[in-house]
Amino acid sequence: MNLKKHAKPNAEIPTSSLADIVFLLLIFFLVTTSMNPAKGIGMTLPPPGEQVEIRQENVLNIFVNPEGAILVAGEITDLRDVRQKVYEARMEFKRRRGEDDEIIVSLLAHTEAEYKHMIDVLDEIKQAEATKISIATPHF
């Protein structure tokens, strides 16, 4: 018996067009991917000008300490209650001063307080529909 060995064909993957395919995929993903810019916190800043003296009775102070505890008008308050307290203070102020006047909500965050706590409180203040918001660090 005469058995001849048959040469096996080499199984090659054609790579000549691989670079073209990779380039086309790269362009496809660059074009179809949407990039959302960071939105940040929308705040309207006042124009630069003279400092205006504000009476303390027109200000609602909210303080965030380094441990994340929140004080609204000197009372320790849970984050869930901040919105209600700010809303009540706004309505009381409007009742005393008139509908056109708005209370100033001053958010004072300790320099060692986490940003998360300050942002959470700021969100609650905005949801209470306060329009005049001051953000500062307290001076000790």
Summarize the structure.
The protein is of the alpha/beta class and 140 residues long. It has three helices and five strands. It has helices at 18-32, 79-97, 115-127, and strands at residues 59-64, 70-72, 75-77, 104-109, 132-136.
Total number of beta strands? 5
* Sheet having the most strands: 5 strands, mixed
In what order do the strands lie side by side in the largest sheet? 3-2-1-4-5
User: Low-confidence runs (pLDDT<50, min 5 residues)?
Assistant: none
Furnish the topology, listing elements before pairings.
Elements: H1 18-32, E1 59-64, E2 70-72, E3 75-77, H2 79-97, E4 104-109, H3 115-127, E5 132-136
Parallel strand pairs: 1-4, 4-5
Antiparallel strand pairs: 1-2, 2-3
Helix pairs in contact: 2-3
How would you portray this structure in words?
By secondary structure, the chain is an alpha/beta fold. It has a domain at 67-136. The protein is 34% helix and 16% strand. The protein has 3 helices and 5 strands. The protein has helices spanning 18-32, 79-97, 115-127, and strands at residues 59-64, 70-72, 75-77, 104-109, 132-136. The chain has a 5-stranded mixed beta sheet, with helices on one face. Helix 2 packs across helix 3. The longest helix is centred in the middle third of the chain and has 19 residues, at 79-97. It is elongated, with a radius of gyration of 31 Å. It starts with 17 loop residues before the first helix and ends with a strand. The model has no long low-confidence stretch (mean pLDDT 83).
